[in-house]
User: Fold this.
Amino acid sequence: MHSSTGFFRTAGLILIYGAALLSSSVYSGSAVSPGSKAAGMESCVAPTEDMRRNHMDYLKHDRIRVVHDGVRGVKNSLAGCIDCHAEKDGKGGYHPINAEGQFCSGCHEYLAVSLTCFQCHSKKPDPKQKDAKSLSGSVSIEQSGHLGLLTGFDEAPALSAEEMVQLRAISREE
Amino acid sequence: MKKLHYSELWCSSPRYWGGLAGLTFIILLGMAAAYYMEHSGHWVTGMSNQVVWGLPHVFAIFLIVAASGALNVASIGSVFGGPLYKPLGRFSGLLAVGLLAGGLVVLLLDLGRPERLIVAMTHFNFKSIFAWNIILYTGFFTIVGIYLWAMIDRKAQRFYQATGFAAFFWRLALTTGTGSIFGFLVAREAYDAAIMAPMFIIMSFSYGLAFFIITLMSAYWWASRQLGSHRLEKLKNLLGVFVGAVLYFSLVYHLTNLYVTQHHGVERFILLDGGLYTVMFWLGQITIGGIIPLFMLYSPAFSDNRFAIVIASIMVLIGGFIQIYLIVIGGQAYPMNLFPGKEVVASSFYDGVVASYTPSLAEGLLGLAGIAIAMTLVAVGARTLKVLPETLEDPEQGTA
Amino acid sequence: MTGKTDQPKDVKRRKFIGITVAAASAASVAPGILLTLADAGTESEGASSNVRWGMLVDSNKCAEDCTACVDACNQENGIDLLQRPEGQGDEMWNAQRPQWIRKVKLRDRQTDEITNLPMMCQHCEFPPCVDVCPTGASFKRADGIVMVDRHTCIGCRYCMMACPYKARSFVHQNVAEQTVRAPRGKGCVESCNLCVHRVDSGATTTACQDACNKDGHQAILFGDLMDPESDLSKALKEKSSRQIRADLELNTGVRYTSL
Assistant:
């Protein structure tokens, strides 16, 4: 019937599809800061591509469960992200994770999406947590350390709840 | 009867644009103030953990209450069939929408997190009267919008009756909701009273009509149009009735509280030894807001005096503003009695002492911007829409 | 229109579209299901309605001019990290800074008896603050703890108007530094949450109780109101206690003796 409309249509479709395909991995560069725990890992909570696209939804879903249902130790915990992705500042502390040049701003500045998380959430990991522990898949409540119990011990052992209480009782006596 | 012809309000360009420029300036100041308050946090205001709602809330509630009352004139025309009021219906709708918009802007910009408006519109706790108010306010815009359309567009005339009734009942619900924001609070002695809802309704009638009279007279003076004395007299008398009714409700409210021993403290505070609050009550609410306007509206000495009507209306508004200030801020300033029979000797959280509140400039600017927004909407609406009759001369005798 | 069609007779067009849509929705929903299932392993149970957290305060044991509980609460929740804004006066700073717990000293008008007690959120069973919150940010957890979901809080302060105990505080300024365990920020309302972060990890005491015990007063006792074997329940059975503003019938979780 018509001469080359079909050809143009197909070509256009291929171009668009190709562009979409290409743009899906536009951030082939990593935003992970070199001095952070995450730098030594391939991926943490989920594959990088998945996290790039969906981290906001995962966080939003799990924060409702944490706050309203009191479920602790969820996979997508903001404090967990910071534990892994915060970069050490070389003086025994950490850089604030939302500072310029740090992990979050790597993507968020380019996309011009401002973050309000850190108006309330701490920008640095809990100072009492030892960073030598590597996160091997699951994170137990006691290990994660971001519950910041008042006891001042140096390791982050995997204690049960009763052992936690006993330890606290002991440290109170000191 | 002469056919009524509505037309856009025309006055000389410098006057109109100059007026708009002035209003815009006030609005910009208010927006800058709101930005300052939001950016630094509320520590720059006079509000604290003791007086949590300040001057912006007073302005906002005042405007919202007046907005619902401003629609009264249209309701009298459509629902109660008052022929002298019917031509005023369109302007009444426009004024109602403008005042509500102004009040809501102030309310929303005073939130701790105004950027979370989307959250407020998508998460509703239906036990909260505040949540219901959000629904009532947005619904008000819709319903009055359709009501205005039914009044202006001949093709939509068939909706006129239905929307007129809907608007009337909706706004009663809205003002009841606004009054219940305070009436439902068991915590504070000045609130926790069922009378708050009907008192707010009658306050809305009074302030709304006062606003209406002032804006109508200003508009007609601005554009050199005729406004008949008989019609104006009807409006004036109606305002007098409402002012009297507000005084009556205040009387009942305070008398009841005086009878209840538990509430003697707050009554003493407002009526006797609250310092500034007591002065505001007797001088502001009762005298300026009630007795003097009543005198000016009904006394034969002022019977032909249009200027007196304007002054009386302005005084009603000032008195009304002060009344809402006393309700919102006076009610918070007076301490809650957690320990009956005991006196608080020391507390770091101001238990048992009258809280102090000094409004800051930023709060005042934001509040004034709310009024300016309302007036801008009315001015632009009157200029672009056919809401004001060419002439409001009194109809000939026997046809009214 | 002719009766001829070039579609195969057994695959009608509508059925084809229906199958495609179903497949597409299944494909988009399925990963979500897997996501939820995959989480179940590492998490705690969450708050349970078999528990109701409460507290007993013995005002006889509360020491005059002692602020141990207040200081401990401030330190536990990062409130002491808040700096006074530059240029703010004393009065306003004191009126605006958040106070989750406060000491109150009372004198009886008739008998001149002096009473000291700490005042904090009473964790009512029927909290007025929860009723009035327009977004549902102020809520009561299954285990009775009344707290604010700061993700949903719009900072309207209506809950502060409604609280009969003036327990809530508004954050009037930017919070530069927080503890990881207690996120808090500008523009939201907050109050005592019975150290929910400690409770959720198995602790049996709140920070204020620990501090009070450390100082030797032992005026604060936290525990489970629904467990007859808990120290709190036993203490409530032994001593006569009452709620503050009991006439409001809010059934508070915090009770006071010797008041």
User: Anything to note?
Assistant: Helices of chain A lie at 5-23, 48-69, 78-85, 103-111, 117-120, 141-144, 161-173.
